[in-house]
């Protein structure tokens, strides 16, 4: 099976690792080979973090430039950092809610306009889906379910290799029972957001 390459980016504290774990286990439940990179960047809250997964026949988890099939970006600037991994065929899901990096807070640089970020992404990819996943997470019951909003969006993308039902099974196996209903609601809302766009 030709690998399906997923690049996930964001900042520490957004649940990137948990999202990768759910995807990896869903692939294994589907009897698909999967390799995943370790975390790159600063894992503490506020530092840039990325993970890379290849679902299919692959030995090296690192996604070559221009060969990502899917980018899931939890933060707009982190989506820009991932541009070298993209091609016109890459599907891009980006959360439009911003987290200001430390150096921007210090006043050294200004945060780009969301419209400009989306323009850059659209110049690179033909399939960019942008929505405020933080707001959807809050409406689902808790801001910390934002990563499951993004995962739901990923499951709705055309060509995504994992069945929605198997991803949900993996969520149930990897998320705390007390927050499962909120996370499932967040997942469904993210799925619906992409399906309707």
Walk me through this protein's architecture.
The chain is of the alpha/beta class. It has helices at residues 16-29, 76-81, 102-105, 114-124, 133-140, 146-155, 164-174, 180-195; strands at residues 4-11, 34-36, 40-41, 48-55, 70-73, 91-95, 127-131. Strands 1, 2, 3, 4, 5, 6 and 7 form a seven-stranded mixed beta sheet that branches. Helix 2 (76-81) links the parallel strand 5 (70-73) and strand 6. Helix 5 (133-140) packs across helix 6 (146-155). The two termini are 29 Å apart. The relative contact order is 0.17.
What's the gist of this structure?
With 197 residues, the protein is of the alpha/beta class.
List keywords for this structure.
single chain, 197 residues, alpha/beta, 7-stranded mixed β-sheet, 8 helices, 18% strand, globular
Could you give the count of β-strands? 7
Beta-strand proportion: 15-25%
For the record, give the distance between the C-alpha atoms at the N and C termini, rounded to a whole number: 29 Å
Report the C-alpha radius of gyration, rounded. Answer: 16 Å
Task: Work out the oligomeric state of the chains in this entry.
Answer: single chain
Q: Judging from the principal axes of the Cα atoms, what is the shape?
A: globular
Instruction: Please state the structural category.
Output: alpha/beta
Query: What value does the average pLDDT take?
Result: 93
Order of helices and strands: EHEEEEHEHHEHHHH
Structure annotation, total helices: 8
- What fraction, in percent, of the residue positions are helical? 40-55%
Uncertain spans: none
Instruction: Please outline the major beta sheet.
Output: 7 strands, mixed
């Amino acid at each position: 099976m030709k690998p399906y390459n997923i690049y996930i980016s964001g900042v520490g504290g957004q649940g990137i690792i948990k999202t990768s774990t759910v995807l990896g286990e869903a692939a294994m439940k589907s009897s698909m080979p999967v390799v995943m990179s370790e975390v790159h960047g600063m894992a503490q809250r506020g530092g840039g973090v990325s993970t890379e997964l290849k679902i299919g026949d692959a030995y090296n988890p690192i996604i070559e430039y221009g060969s990502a099939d899917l980018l899931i970006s939890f933060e707009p600037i982190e989506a820009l950092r991932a541009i070298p991994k993209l091609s016109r065929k890459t599907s891009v899901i980006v959360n439009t809610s911003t987290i200001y990096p430390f150096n921007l807070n210090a006043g050294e640089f200004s945060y780009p306009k969301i419209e400009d970020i989306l323009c850059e992404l659209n110049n690179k990819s033909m399939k960019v889906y942008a929505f405020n996943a933080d707001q959807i997470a809050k409406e689902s019951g808790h801001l910390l379910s934002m990563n499951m909003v993004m995962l739901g969006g990923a499951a709705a993308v055309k060509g995504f290799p994992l069945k929605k039902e198997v991803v949900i099974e993996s969520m149930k196996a990897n998320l705390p029972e007390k927050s499962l209903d909120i996370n499932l609601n967040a997942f469904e809302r993210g799925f619906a957001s992409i399906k309707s766009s």
